[in-house]
Amino acid sequence: MHGMTPETATDTALPPPSVLKAFQLTGRPEPLEGGQGQSVRVGDAVLKPAGDSADVQWTARLMDGLQGQRGFRVPRSLRSVDGDHVVEGWAATRFLAGEPGPAGRWESLLAAGRSFHEALRDEPRPDRLDLHQHPWAVADRVAWGATTAEVPAHIDQLVTRLQALREPVLARAQLMHGDLTGNVLFAPGQAPAIIDFSPYWRPVAYADAIVLVDGLLHHRAGPHLLDSVLPGAEGAQMLLRALIFRLVALGVLVGRSGVPAEDELIRFARVSRLVEERVGG
User: Which of 18, 163, 175, 180 falls 20 to 30 Å from 117 in CA-CA distance?
Assistant: First the structure.
């Protein structure tokens, strides 16, 4: 989840043999790049630390219901020999082939995200979203004016400035993936694969805005993308919220007394100027 932020781990824990046996997997676990550096591949399966087992089970049911849809692929969850989704803190899904974007694949990435969100259009809001307290859940609530967060002074000043530009938006909220940028995989002859579902209850355009903000911050995307994907005043408001989301997440991860990396602050200042111009225009 949320591979676009600086929490990436350097050492990957490996699942013990008992976990592999429970999922009927053979082979040597190999760490996978990306994400938080916690996923490992074993044969045609991917294992990762499960977190909340109720979240794992809910996500598994959701993704299993999206198998065979047009425009995207999602991983199918695996169960242990006892029928469990989580074994000793590990969950497993079927491996999906593909290379991550997003550079040069912005249109395909966004199109896959929209197909995915259209398939989720009628899903009810899960109560479990209210239980999430990880840094990105907190940052999302700050972005939409539902809470506040303790962040370093440099970040707090910029967040306050951006918050002052917020206006109400009318777009319909639904279940959406809030971290598509590094989690859409591309393989020749196959629909893009969408992995590491990070659920939020927001307008679909907010998911697009997070992708665009990530592109501007980390992938040298050009400002022209903004005009084609999120035009107009409401598009600018989605960008504003997406930028606050990423900025507050960085601040929460660093901690109020922490010091963000100088290059991170420079990138956020640059993108903030761009977004402020769009909101003001």
Answer: 163
Q: What is the spatial distance between Cα 67 and Cα 76, in angstroms, rounded to a whole number?
A: 7
Provide the token pair at 274: 């761009």
Boundaries of every domain in the chain: 17-95, 100-280
Task: Kindly report the pTM of this predicted structure.
Answer: 0.93
Domain 17-95 -> CATH class: alpha beta
Give mean pLDDT, residues 34-56.
Answer: 88
Within 145-231, residue ranges assigned H as helices are 153-163, 204-218, 224-229
Q: Which helix (H) or strand (E) holds 141?
A: helix 135-143
Cβ-proximal residues to 157 (8 Å cutoff; 6+ apart), any chain = none
Closest CA to 48 of 100, 89, 80, 2: 89
Arch. (CATH architecture) of 100-280: Alpha-Beta Complex (3.90)
Cα distances (angstroms) measured from residue 121 to each of 57, 63, 243: 20, 14, 24
